[in-house]
Amino acid sequence: MRTWKVGELAKQTGLTVRTLHHYDQIGLLSPSHRTAAGHRLYGEVDVGRLQQIVSLRSLGFALDDVRAVLRDGMAPLEVVRMHAARLREQIHAQQRLADRLDRVAAGLEHAHRVSPDELIHTIEEITRMEQYYTPEQMEYLNQRREIVGEARIREVEAEWPRLMDEVRAEMQAGTDPADPRVQELARRWMGLLAEFTGGDPGIARSASAVWENETEVQGINAAEMREIMGYIGRAKAAGSAS
Amino acid sequence: MRTWKVGELAKQTGLTVRTLHHYDQIGLLSPSHRTAAGHRLYGEVDVGRLQQIVSLRSLGFALDDVRAVLRDGMAPLEVVRMHAARLREQIHAQQRLADRLDRVAAGLEHAHRVSPDELIHTIEEITRMEQYYTPEQMEYLNQRREIVGEARIREVEAEWPRLMDEVRAEMQAGTDPADPRVQELARRWMGLLAEFTGGDPGIARSASAVWENETEVQGINAAEMREIMGYIGRAKAAGSAS
DNA sequence: CTTGCACCTGACGTAGCGTGAGGGTTTAGC
DNA sequence: GCTAAACCCTCACGCTACGTCAGGTGCAAG
User: Fold this and answer.
1) 3-state secondary structure of A222
2) Are A138 and A153 part of one and the same domain?
3) pLDDT along chain A (242 residues), means of 10
4) Which is nearest to B56 in space by CA: A118, A18, A135?
5) B52 and B127 share one domain
6) Which nucleotides of D are covered by protein (CB under 7 A)?
7) What chain A residue is nearest to B120 in terms of C-alpha separation?
């Protein structure tokens, strides 16, 4: 009947001596024998049990669970299933987190200076976004980002303020929404909007909900935005009525 | 200038009082004031900083990282990216783990009695499998499982031993591999094999590698399996030569 | 006999708080 | 003005699964 000392066993299993000490300490695996000097001697039964422990650990079980399974063999199938389910939940949570991180990174990308304030602001904006869009919609928006490409996105984002300026100018000049110049602006407006929503009406609704409930988004005053959107709305109505 | 006490602040932010104590203790957020009795009084600046902390924590940053980012604003973009990358690695590792768990659960499903030994054995078998099949192949096999359905899988698994018995009988009887009966057995053999591999030659190679390197798989002696496979191979050769 | 290696037993550190214990403070109601 | 409830304070241990010293013993080779 062969025996092994901690060091040998550690080398064979890839565990550390400390780990074996630990298992001994918590009573998960205590060697059957000791030398007169107190050195641990593991017998074949011990090695077998250690293999089982390693196997269960490789499935991510906590040491207490390992002990429980080895002790009363508690319905392993159910245990494994529950473990898998918990793990998948965790994975989903982390997946969402990773998506957030990506969005934040994307939001920071074209902000040239990145002060802490900027970072916080971006995070909070993303957080707010998540309240208006469902996960599916976020997914959809992400896919669209990839499809249209970063370059075009930057173009569009640069285009918005210019367009808003022009609309604001006409609005303040009191130009009739039916005026051809305003009609042209409305067409450009709807084009940009369509590029964002991808034609999805759900996205469009969510986006307008943002402007209705927030006071400021991405540095743009929401009240003014609502005004402008109203003006554009009238222009559209006038355009389709004619 | 308003101030808040810990309890109020905790209620507003959804954190616990203990958490705020902790942040104070580690010097991450210490209230600007205290009452004469020593009660914490947070000012507006403190609340702002707390918001930043909460934001960064919501991205999964460790408290030390939060401190670092707030202190020297260290290139947040890079930090966020690295964080996301690490997170995705973790996710992949956990994904693999979850897949293992599913496979183990599947392996246990049609083992009626589930002793600890059974469990360990299944785990070890799965572990060995993973050495022979690439992750892509595992993925492929999983998809095939879903497509053909559990019922058919159980049928096939029940069919193998019967077929092996028949082949073994002919082999021991010394039947010529060219014999029509053996030819029929060979056809059935190839059919079952094709159901497992799905026609993928890579899978077939990996599967045969298993039998070449192991001594026993799922209770079947590998040496005998190699013998039988040789016999089937000769039958195939005889069949195609004719 | 010494050198070097393997082994031993504590015991602290880790991340981010949870959860008491034991004892003051504030505040609303009477 | 008093009392009880609610709130606050400071320790300090607990949790996971070991890593990492520190200080000392055992054992085989030269």
Assistant:
1) helix
2) no
3) 93 96 96 95 95 93 93 78 92 92 82 70 81 80 79 81 87 89 89 84 85 80 87 84 61
4) A118
5) no
6) 7-10, 16-20, 25-27
7) A52
What residues make up the domain containing B156?
149-242
Q: Do the strands A40-41 and A216-217 form a parallel or antiparallel pair, or are they unpaired? A: unpaired
Candidates B49, B67, B80: best to mutate against A (most CBs of A within 10 A) is: B80
Structural contact between residues B138 and B99, judged by C-beta atoms closer than 8 angstroms: yes
Query: Could you tell me the two tokens for B164?
Result: 């092996």
Encoded tokens for A77: 């199938």
Whether A160 and A111 map to the same domain: the answer is: no
Count of domains forming chain A: 3
Q: Which of A20, A50, A73 is the C-terminal boundary of a domain?
A: A73
B82/A contact by beta carbon, under 8 A: no
* DSSP helix/strand/coil, B27: coil
One domain for residues B209 and B169: yes
B112-167 residue pLDDT tens:
666 767 777 888 888 788 778 887 888 788 788 778 877 887 788 788 888 888 88
Give me the amino acid identity at B21.
Answer: H
* Beta bridge partner(s), residue A42: A4
Task: Please give the helix or strand (H or E) that residue A33 lies within, else none.
Answer: strand A33-34
Distance B29 CA to C21 C1' (A): 26
Domain limit, last residue, from A12, A44, A73? A73
Per-state percent for chain B, helix, strand, coil, to nearest 5: 75, 5, 20
pLDDT in tens, B182-199: 898 889 898 888 888 888
From the list B213, B154, B160, the residue with the least C-alpha distance to B188 is B160
How large is the greatest C-alpha to C-alpha distance in chain B, in angstroms? Answer: 104
Do B186 and B226 touch, CB atoms closer than 8 A? no
Residue A25 near residue A31 (C-beta atoms within 8 A): no
CB atoms within 10 A of CB A84: 21
Size of interface A-B (CB pairs under 8 A): 118
Angle at B74 between CA B50 and CA A146, to 5 degrees: 95
The overall pTM is greater than 0.90: no
DSSP character at residue A75: -
SS3 per residue for A42-68: ECHHHHHHHHHHHHHHHCCCCHHHHHH
- In this predicted structure, what is the pLDDT of residue A210? 84
Domain match, B59 and B80 both: no
Give the CATH number of the domain where residue A48 resides: 1.10.1660.10
